[in-house]
Batch of 4 targets.
Target 1
Amino acid sequence: EKARLEAEEKARLEAEEKARLEEEEKARLEAEEKARLEAEEKARLEAEEQARLEAEEKARLEAEEKARLNAEEKAQLEAEEKARLEAEEKARLEAEEKARLEAEERARLEAEEKARLEAEEKARLEAEEKARLDAEEKARLNAEEKARLEAEEKARLEAEEKARLEAEEKARLEAEERARLEAEEKARLEAEEKARLEAEEKARLEAEEQARLDAIEKARLEAELAEQRLREEEERIAMLQRKEEEARKLREEEERLAQEMFEEQQEAERKAAEKEAAREEAQRKLEEETALARAREEAANRAQKEMHLKNQDLAEKEFQAAKAAEQQAEASVKESKSDRELEIANRMRDGALQRADRATINKDLADATVMRDVKVLKPVINKAEKKRVSGTENYLLQAKKLYEQLQAATQLQGATFDRRIADIEAAIHAIKKGGFETLLAVELLEAQVLLKKLQRIQKAALEVQKLSQQTIAILKSY
């Protein structure tokens, strides 16, 4: 009996030990299976998170590299554009300053020359008038003295002789035959001298016949008269010579002025030709720069559109994957049997919903950037900024950049249409500040050319307003 009892006790204990071991083994196996499943789920989630983080990091690095390259390209283009603009502005200012100084110097010289000629002409006229008055007064006194001393017949003959001589002298001056004038004058002087000698001889003979005192008085008077006439003749000849010299100088001055005018005309034509050549060269350079800017703009816009299309494709794929993950998570929630599986499925569903929300926002942003419409971009950007979902920063940045670019282009178009300098400068500053020089290269170049023209017009208007009345009078005289 004791042996039976011991055997039964032993069998019971062995059965209990076996059951306990089996229970423990089963619990261990279940725990290991559960741990394996949890580890696999955790590894999968970590792999997905790692892949997402790597994709985001790769996109961020690509965006940073692209931004750096764009910044370097922008800095280089800005430096080249700044150097070119400074060189052009310096050359233009030097040319304007040179032209202004030449114009002022020419105006000053012409004014001085004109004043000098007017002073000389006035002095000459005054001298001629004074000489004429003196000559008339002297002739009047001589005529009165002669009329008193001699008979009226002699005075009439002398007046006729004087009138004849003056007529001959006038004809001789009009013919401008100086040699003939000198020959005739010499002959006339010889004739007068001969007549004077004959008269003196006659007077001497008559004086010998007449009373000695009367003859001496008459000879003295005739000698004084002849001397007076000789002095008058010499003065007249000197005056004629001065007139001829003045006429020669006047002709030389006219020839010099004509030569200067001809040279100035040639210089003006040369400058006009150079200006036209410079304008054609500037137009050619502008066309080349416009073509280059258009090529850069088209390449940049093409690259931007390709990037937007690529982002749209990536966003679409991400959206489809997120939707599929969301459906799978929903199915996992429905198929969960234990609380642990339900908890894991709920976490997976929450992650899938978050990814789906992010993919939806990215897809909306990518679609809006492809459409390139300000009215579409603005509400999508506001919605993304309001939600602030992680992982949408790259698409949001591209959408905002495109929105700013379209706004800057619209602002520049309106400013160039209104032709207001301040608005154009503000629009150009906005484009440069946003880094859109390449994407809006043609519009920016055209606006800069228009701005230069408007600034030149404004500067000219200010310079005209500053002109004094004296300067305006000089310009009118020209």
Target 2
Amino acid sequence: AVVSTQSGHYGWAIIFTCNVCKTRQAKTMSKKSYEQGVVLIRCDGCDNLHLIADNMGWFRDEKVNVVDILMEKEEEVKTLSDVDLLDVTDLGLFNEAAGEKGG
């Protein structure tokens, strides 16, 4: 989903559950980082690093992002547009993430 951070910059948000500690959380990142750079997100619960995007071949020989990784693992991927609805819990996480400094 596209969000506007407190600094007024637009970025992307991700809501996910850590497979290590099961903490549900939302984070923001810049679109440019996701599409052209490397994005690692640290879990709020266990401090584990999650690879979200690698467009520079640091971790694999080819470009990869979280959607590719989850599809390889046959895990569910949901994308949200501006008209999609979040459940109340996810909406709170989303609003907290939008208040953070993006990517």
Target 3
Amino acid sequence: MGDKTKTGAFNRKPVDKRFVHQVTSGQRGPNYWVPMDISDTECKIMEVRQFSASFFELDEKFRRPGLELISAYAVQNAFLWGQYLLRREQLKMQLTGTG
């Protein structure tokens, strides 16, 4: 059958965790995140306050006739944030031709 090795779910490449460590140690997380213990919880779900600027921004983006935004939640996941930062860096390198 060949010597291809399967890596992870759906045969994806192994995850590069360079930025994940920086995020979990608090160096690269968004400034509005609530501190959390990564060893205890993997992610945190927080309700977006109804009369905050973030809520109005979401309401504006998703507003449709006949629909009303009742509540919104934000997911705080250091692992996914780290993956996003890594991918962003990869794309920057590709676009500048240094990769």
Target 4
Amino acid sequence: QFNKVKKLTTKSHVLQWGQKSMGSEKASVFEGTGKTAPSSVVSEVERSDRDHVDSRDIGLVTRYNLYMQAGAAERPAHAAALVAEIQQREEADAKFAALA
């Protein structure tokens, strides 16, 4: 499974850790009946580029997702954090544009 994921991953490094002696065993031994691979494993590996997040955007995307999933009571705090993240990005972009 590691080699399959490594082959299909093009936008980041794939790491392997933990007990590697289990590497020769199929994931279905642990997840299912052993007859077929779970469909969720295949669909996770075969996602398109639209599901990838640039590492520089993680803070922005995380704050956006927290805002969107927040209840009414938590939403103002998440909105403030999202706006602050956007303002910080705008300030950084302006500084780098001035250097160019």
